[in-house]
Amino acid sequence: MGHAASPESGFFDDWAARLRQAAERPVVGILLRGSHARRAATAHSDVDLDVLVTDAPPPRPAGPPINAPYAARRAYLAENGGRLTHVSVAVRDVRSWLERLAQPAEWAFGLPVTAPIRLLWADERWRARIDLPVLCQPADEPRLEELIATLGKVAGARARGDHLGVRLAAADLARLCPSVLRLANPSVRVVSRRAAFAAALDLPVAPPGYRDDMLLCLGVRPGSVGQLWAAAGRLVTGTVPLVRPYAEEIAAGAGADLAEALSDGRLDRYLAQLTGGPGPARACVPGPTPLARREPSPVPAPRAGEWVTVPVPDAPVTGANARKTPAATPGPARPSRLDPAVAARLRRTPDGLVAAVVRQHDTGEVLMVAWMDDEALHRTLTSGLATYWSRSRQEYWVKGATSGHLQHVRSVALDCDGDALLVSVDQVGAACHTGERTCFFTELPVTTSGGPA
Fold first, then answer.
1. pLDDT tens digits, residue range 226-281?
2. Is 93 a known ligand-binding residue?
3. Where does the Nucleotidyltransferase substrate binding domain lie (predicted)?
4. In this structure, are 247 and 384 located in the same domain?
5. Is residue 301 a part of any domain in this protein?
6. pLDDT tens digit string along 406-431?
């Protein structure tokens, strides 16, 4: 996978001590972020450190202290095992850092974030508040109003012949689109900017051609101004019907009028006016539909600290929002990007699942048993983190994403009948939710025909 071992712990200890001494304010904690905290670093990865300081700066000679949030960045090139390592240091006010955790991440395409982090040092008075296995930031609100307004900016720039303006506005539109589509999709969490980009492209409930249109609008794929305009229009006009059942959630952020327009057809007419396309195919509802009578969203919005999905950058599966009912066929119960050759060898339960026996790769210790469907197996094989299907929550989850007790996959084997998987992992911490290393810690008495063994 191209991952490299993190620097020796002494390297981080030395830098924690150095930064404590060099800080302009009293330090309350030093945290390791980024690829090293996620155990995904390569030989070229930066070391990202957050230095959390008190919120009151020292008095200035010319006046009283300034209590505004404080953030400063410094970069270093440090010797590490005969190589130079780029150390990026962000000095942050601890209270504003904590407040920031309650805000959506700007880089996450509106999706909620669950990113591993490692505490290197903490003042004991602050340890309980900043010693977190992961940093959780909430999803952004569905920004439908901004999505529509941005399509208007694309149209305006195109009418003026402002080709650069079209490209800039189309990129903004693509970054907004996942925050709206999130309403119609299963819960998804991301650990990095790269994972957020992949998740934004791989939303299973999306307009036809969604992935290609997103790549075009974001500038990842080349295209003419006309192609960009067409892609932007398809993204917005294709998203609106998918989120129509979620008018109550739209109203909470954008107001009741836009939510009513989403339901009574005015929004379709406005989009047709912007794009020059036909009006809505369906008949408009005569008058506003009371929000209270609308069917509630069948897909709950993601909540911090619950379950996690780490998507992989493959082609998306588009289509309607399927109801979460067990499949009656031996095939996959949910859309999946699993290699068809592998999928053909699976023998699934009636609800599309295969048992996964998990063991520690070097000792053979059996840790736990869980369930995978085709997509969970695909994500396990391609992301390097053990991913399962929760039968109780009806969601995908990455083991240890909230606790920090991740399972780094070393190998996966399929048994001779195709109805069970053997997943060999490097287990971080406890595998069992009780805090035990393994789920199999309760021994039962065994007797033979001759009496107790």
1. 999 999 999 999 999 999 988 888 888 888 999 899 999 899 999 999 888 654 33
2. no
3. 145-240
4. no
5. no
6. 899 989 999 988 999 999 998 988 89
User: If you search the block for the tokens 């230095």, which residue do you land on?
Assistant: 51
Establish whether 177 is an annotated binding residue: no
For residue 6, name the pLDDT band (cuts at 50, 70, 90).
low
- Residue 101: pLDDT above 70? yes
CATH code, domain carrying 89? 3.30.460.10
The answer on 374 and 273 residing in a single domain is: no
Lowest-confidence pick of 77-81, 92-96, 189-193: 77-81
Task: Name the token pair of 405.
Answer: 């007790």
Co-location of 85 and 103 in the same domain: yes
DSSP notation for 205-235: S--TTHHHHHHHHTTSS---HHHHHHHHHHH
Rounded to the nearest integer, the mean pLDDT of the chain is 81
Same domain (yes/no): 287, 148: yes
How many domains does the chain fold into?
Answer: 3
Higher pLDDT, 154 or 446: 154
Asked if 240 contacts 271 with a C-beta cutoff of 8 angstroms, the reply is yes
Same domain, 148 and 68: no
Are residues 271 and 168 part of one domain?
yes
Report how far apart, in Å, the C-alpha atoms of 334 and of each of 323, 325, 357 are.
Answer: 10, 10, 21
Residue numbers of the domain that contains 80: 9-137
Distance CA 3, CA 44 (A): 10
d(CA 453, CA 441): 19
pTM, to two decimals: 0.58
Task: Name 83's bridge partners.
Answer: 80
| 438 within some domain | no
416 is in an annotated binding site: yes
Q: How far apart are the first and last CA of the chain?
A: 47
In a domain, 159, yes or no: yes
The answer to whether 415 is a known ligand-binding residue is: yes
Does 123 share its domain with 68?
yes
Kindly state whether residues 349 and 414 are assigned to the same domain. yes
314 assigned to some structural domain: no
Q: What angle do CA 184, 148, 179 make, to 5 degrees?
A: 35
Q: Is 351 annotated as a binding residue?
A: no
DSSP 262-300: HHHSHHHHHHHHHHT----SSPPPSSPPPGGGSPPPSSP
pLDDT at 283 over 70: no
